Amino acid sequence: MSGARPALPAYLRQLWSRRHFITAFATARLTAQYSQAKLGQLWQLMTPLLNAAVYYFIFGVLLDTKRDVPDFIPFLVTGVFIWTFTSNSIMASTRAVSGNLGLVRALHFPRAALPIGLALQQFQQLLFSLGALVVILIGFGEYPGPAWLLAVPALLLQAVFNTGVSMAMARVAARTPDVSQLMPFLLRTWMYLSGVMWSVDKVTRSSDVPHLVGVALQCNPAAVYIDLLRFAFVRSFTAAQLPPHVWALALGWALVAGAGGFLFFWKAEEEYGRG
Questions:
Q1: Is there a domain that residue 165 lies in?
Q2: In a domain, 228, yes or no
Q3: Which end of the chain is more exposed for a tag (fewer CB within 10 A), N or C?
């Protein structure tokens, strides 16, 4: 059973002391994720690639979105891979507590280790998938350059953001398990608003879009991180001037979500595993 919630400094020390457990937990989950599938870990690459193929056919071919977006395939594939990182992190977090009740009830450890470990698992999976993304980018003429180094801070900020949101959702789902059934619909809606398949910049510059709607789309955290990675990887984006507010938003969202999600989860530490 969960004990009383420790003070925040003590809680942070407990988490740090269990960093090896968190890493091992994430790695074990990643290894076991596709262990029953014949293609095994290849599904880590095939899932976003199949999604990208479907989106290309619907949005690029049928809706002709590619007409307004240079380098559409690198643009699309980058968006799909980066969005998948966020969506998978949040979906996994909805079962961080309920899916590990045996551990929660049998062992005494800071419960934040579970959503953090699952977020780390998704980060490990992203790093594995980036190899395929790089091959695709090079295949379509996007060769490595100095701008690619910007992917490192961008991905780290996105990882902090994902972890914070994951901890917040882990607490909500622990109290209301039905959230895990609702989350796919919420994430799908968020994806369509995040410029995965279309250019946020081109839409917000249109006179048909109200100013407040345009600001909301530009400040959307998922769109911010996707744009940063496109700026790093896609030549037509790199050649353009990235607005300075994008990095500020990326840092701000990471700090707000990371700290806020952690504190929100910690506040209910003694409740996890009851019932």
A1: yes
A2: yes
A3: C
Contact (Cβ atoms closer than 8 angstroms) between residue 187 and residue 91: yes
Could you give the CA distance from residue 150 to residue 263 in angstroms, rounded to a whole number? 29
- Domain residue limits at 149: 8-271
Q: Is the dihedral of CA 33, 26, 164, 176 positive or negative?
A: positive
Distance (Å, whole) CA 132 – CA 45: 7
For 76-135, write each residue's pLDDT tens digit: 889 999 999 999 999 999 999 988 888 888 888 899 999 999 999 999 988 888 888 888
What are 132-165's pLDDT values in tens digits?
A: 888 889 988 889 989 899 999 999 999 999 999 9
Query: Under a CB-based contact definition with an 8 Å cutoff, are residues 46 and 80 in contact?
Result: no
The crossing angle, in degrees rounded to 10, of helices 245-267 and 151-175 is 30
Q: How far apart are CA 129 and CA 108, in angstroms?
A: 34
Residue for token digits 């942070």?
A: 12
* Spatial distance between the Cα atoms of 191 and 184, rounded to a whole number of angstroms: 10
- Contacts with 28 (C-beta within 8 Å, 6 or more apart), sequence order: none
Here the tokens at position 244 are: 């300075």
Does some domain include residue 32?
A: yes
Largest CA distance in the chain: 59
Which amino acid is present at 86? T
Distances (CA, A) of 263 to 36, 142, 160: 36, 41, 14
Residue 115: inside a domain: yes
State how many domains the chain has. 1
If you ran DSSP here, which 8-state letter would residue 56 be given?
A: I
